[in-house]
Amino acid sequence: MATRVPGRAATATVDGGGVVTGWSAEAERLTGFGTGRVLGRPAVELLAGRVPIALLRAVVRHAPFGGMVRLHRSEDETVEVELGVVPVRTARGEPVWVVSARPLQPLTTEAAALPALASASAQGSPEERARRRLALLGEAGLRIGSTLEVERTAEELADVAIEGFADFVGVDLLDSVFGGGPPTSAGLVFYRVAQRSVLPGSPESATLSGRGDVIAPDSPMARVLSSGRPLRTDYRDPEIRAWLAQEPERERLAKEFGIHSSLLVPLTARGTTLGVAIFLRHRTPEPFDQDDLLLATELTARAALSVDNARQYTQQRDTALALQRSLLPSRTPRQAAVEVAFRYLPAGGREGVGGDWFDVIPLSGARVALVVGDVVGHGVPASAAMGRLRTAVRTLADIDMPPDELLTHLDDLVLRVDLDELPEGGTAWAGSSVGATCLYAVYDPATRSCSLARAGHPGPALVGPDNTVTFPELPAGPPLGLGGLPFEAAELEVPEGSVLALYTDGLLRASELRGDPGLGLDRLGSALAAPIGSLEDLCDQVLSSTLGPDAPSDDVALLLARTRALHTQDVADWQLRHDPSEVARARKLATAKLADWGIEEASFVTELVVSELITNAVRYGRPPIGFRLIRDGGVLICEVSDGSSTAPHLRRARNDDEGGRGLLLVAQLCRNWGTRHTPRGKTIWAEQEL
Predict the structure, then answer these.
(1) What domains, with CATH codes, occur in the chain?
(2) Residue pLDDT, tens place only, 63-86
(3) pTM score
(4) Is 206 exposed, middle or buried (0-12, 13-18, 19+ CB in 10 A)?
């Protein structure tokens, strides 16, 4: 026997007189002859001609021949073809003949060039049909549901069913599956997710893939959805003809392509109807039978479960991503210490959205806090935990804690949350729901210094004004949630115009997965060193260099900050004696400086603020006493420091109290005020709008 030709079977149907009445798309592709050129011609004429026939199966109704047939090309050129005819019966009781053909005696070189025809067993036999159904189901089990993507799963169903079962497969999902509205008055709204055909481009389809469609309430598809049961139709049925008469485009396509039979199967999973799968035949002469309906139902049921899994995963991922993005800053707050650009990329794998975050927090004294963090886990729980941590960081930053103290308090918070949610008999870390890492940095534009501390997080990169990239060594603190271990801060001198790059480990994960842990840092350093002026362009350069074209395997947060500096002409600093007479001197110094800056209109409020803050420092604090004025854009900042750690508190003075109204007056005149503790005491500050 000849070798079987790979691919979908090429079929031809001939009537009792041996005239071709059906010509499949595969036969058209293999022979190069279109349907219009072949239909109506005798099969013997085609075989005897110079057509390169390579048909696998020829299904012949009422076969007019059997045994040996000798075909003549010319008087001196002969090719013998053996036709073995096997009678079988279809479910409808009609006789079907399956022909096996092969060249027996090629007499010339040209004749030998004819492709041999493979032997085909009786495809109508119950055994063969059962084998084909089992093979198709096995293929479906291997190929359907390979991803958690709705569209891809629907395409896999169509790909499997088009191979030797249907001539066209369409998968329609209800618009409500994608979050659309309820059915319209005109009928149900469908979304064509996938379609496949034996004809290139699926020309027999009335709906384009990726487009919506409205199905009338009396259509077969609507009946299938309402009943929840599959339906086998014959296009000669008067009821189907009546429906097609109301759908001119579908009626035209059915006539043009000879659609004669269909199977409509609802996609139902976990009690929810998602849509309908449509199977059509037009090139295959046999209509669908009851066994085909059972097979289509089994295929669709497998696909429906995978589609529902993909749908639920997509919904959960979208929910987590929406929560994540709502908790992340969409824009950074106004501040003058740094120029900022940032990126956040969710993971592209099945794990789902993680808990990476970043933040930019304005602090007193024109300083700014830069934060990046990463919560262990994925999905909504990780996003919710990230939101709690980000809120806690902003709260602790608002009271001006140094980086190491802030991480200590944050670690206690995570540990308390873990203990509250700890399963009975579990340990804190093993049962932890909020393990996290964090890097917290505070940049002071007045001193051009940056204080940083980290909790199990990668250290930053520092790009100097000359584009030199370094990775400063920071004390390695433990991840948040372990408890009992100290955190240490490091101080860096940061020249004006430098770029601080803070990131999560997802930025380096792609290189680590390729087996080279150091490759990620090398690529990051090379990308940061590129002479790119815009921080936005630099963000894009970093991501493309470290991640490549593929979606990241883990969430990525990137924060770039180009430092600015407060120059000497914007800062005035004095040391005062621990003496009440220094209050009047401080007022005069402040008034003179405001006049020098050209903002005399702020003198009245500034004198009141200076008097109150320095009086409190002299009366309740300890030396040394410092006094500083900072002009930061449209804000004037007044700072008074002393060597005492005791902080003043705002209180309501009673009518007969002689004091207690000073800080209340400061709070009313200024937009904000507060206290921050330092290693040598405290600083009271007040900001007023200019």
Answers:
(1) 12-122 (no CATH), 127-318 (3.30.450.40), 329-563 (3.60.40.10), 568-689 (3.30.565.10)
(2) 333 333 333 333 333 333 333 333
(3) 0.62
(4) middle
